Write the C-alpha cells for this entry.
Amino acid sequence: MEDYNYFFDIADNPENDKVFVLIIYDIIENKKRIKLSKMLLGYGFRIQKSAFEAVISKKKYNELLERLPAYASAADSIKVYKIIGRGQVVSFGKAEENKNEDVIVI
C-alpha cells in the first residue's frame, strides 16, 4: 500500500453541503472524450485515464449531472457514484500525481 491512501467522511445532513463523487466513463469518440475530461477537471481530479474524483457542493453535483448527458451517445457510458458516509480509499501500484491545474469553467 502507498502513502496516498485516505479516508473521507461525508455526512448526509442538511448542514453538510459537500458530496464525494467518483465519475467513470467510456466514451468512444476521441474528441468528445477529451472535451469531457477537460470539463471534469473543473470539478475534481483525474485518478485514472477514464476516472475522476471530486468533493463538491451539492449545487455543483447537480450542475455536473445536468452537463454529463451531452457527452454520452447510445454507445457511450458515464457513471457517477455519489458516496456518503465514512469511506476509505486504498491504492495499489503506481501513485497518481494530482496536478492542480488552473481551470476556469464558464
Notes: The radius of gyration is 14 Å. Residues 42 and 102 are 9 Å apart (CA to CA).
